[in-house]
Design a protein that fits this description.
Layout: E1 2-4, E2 9-10, E3 15-18, E4 27-29, E5 34-37, E6 40-42, H1 45-53, E7 57-65, E8 70-78, H2 82-95, H3 103-113, H4 120-137, H5 141-155, H6 161-173, H7 186-196, H8 208-211, H9 216-226, H10 234-242, H11 251-267, H12 271-281, H13 288-296
Parallel strand pairs: 3-8
Antiparallel strand pairs: 1-2, 1-4, 5-6, 5-7, 7-8
Helix pairs in contact: 2-3, 3-4, 4-5, 5-6, 11-12
Length: about 300
């Protein structure tokens, strides 16, 4: 079958995107007896690989297999231009550097990057991410999660610091704490360390820590709960939360907060509040493994 060495995995899907330059040793053809590219038969492996890697923007339909199986694979090749990536990221950070933004800012960003043709999916992912943040801030939580999903589905194909940061924030919103990315913004890194016990390296990109736009709820949790976790008592953390409106907290945010309070209750050896918050999160899929490990140990 087709195998990508860079991904160290067999390609078994029906469609893939190639957004960065690949080398000849990053593709292997295993156990393939026949292959057609755009309905043209190919016999030489090196010829096939060169055909794929020498195209910077094209659509390729591949049929391949052996006596036991036949498969089809569509490859959309659009090698991202480095300068266009830089331009889109600069526009993104400049447009959303303020503490607040509007739908007009989101549309303005889209207009400014529409001519960057080699990174259309990257720009679209950034656009959908900001739509997700906007929806989340308006309390439209289901729509926000849908847009977070759409954003990360495409942006994960780009090995960029900004892409990794956005994926981490989207996962934080989805209570998905298994993201393999090693790039984190500092407070988010602290939050994930607190939740999972695994510490990741902070994202290092000049200015991004202050400029990266996130939803109000995540910002509040990071800046008012996580940053004060070690210095405040559980009572103080809960009081801090109760002072503020909770309308912008999604059900997933509430679960995160209850889990954080459960962690604090453990540290303070407060059995009453430990049981209280355990009851609130014990059926949460996001925390079931952590809870099981704690109570089974």
């Amino acid at each position: 079958m087709l195998r990508s060495e860079s991904a160290t995995a067999e390609i078994t899907g029906s469609e893939i995107d190639i957004t960065s330059i690949i080398k000849t040793d990053e593709i292997r053809l295993n156990n393939i007896e026949h292959i057609y590219i755009n309905e043209i038969p190919f016999n030489d492996e090196s010829e096939i690989i060169n055909f794929i890697i020498n195209n910077k923007k094209t659509f390729i339909s591949i049929g391949y297999g052996n006596k036991s199986i036949d498969r089809k694979l569509n490859i959309n090749i659009c090698i991202a231009d480095e300068q266009e990536l830089i331009k889109a990221e600069e526009v993104f950070l400049d447009t959303f550097s303020a503490s607040s933004f509007s739908i007009e800012n989101i549309l303005d960003f889209s207009k400014k990057v529409k001519d960057l043709k080699t990174i259309e999916k990257y720009s679209d992912s950034l656009f959908r991410y900001m739509q997700a943040v906007d929806k989340k801030n308006k309390g439209e939580f289901n729509d926000a999660i849908t847009l977070f999903n759409q954003s990360t589905q495409s942006i994960k194909k780009y090995d960029r610091f900004l892409a990794h940061a956005i994926i981490s924030i989207a996962n934080f919103n989805r209570n998905d704490f298994n993201c393999p990315s090693v790039y984190r913004i500092p407070l988010l890194n602290d939050a994930l360390h607190l939740i999972t016990g695994v510490k990741k390296d902070n994202l290092k990109l000049d200015g991004i820590e202050k400029q990266l736009p996130i939803d109000h709820a995540s910002e509040y949790i990071l800046e008012n709960i996580i940053s004060k976790f070690n210095d405040c008592t559980l009572e103080q953390l809960v009081a801090q939360l109760e002072k503020n409106k909770t309308s912008f907290f999604s059900p997933l945010d509430i679960q995160k907060l209850y889990f954080i309070f459960w962690r604090k209750a453990l540290i303070e050896k407060n059995e009453v509040f430990e049981k209280k918050y355990y009851q609130k999160i014990k059926y949460s899929n996001a925390f079931e493994d952590i809870l099981r490990e704690h109570y089974d140990s």
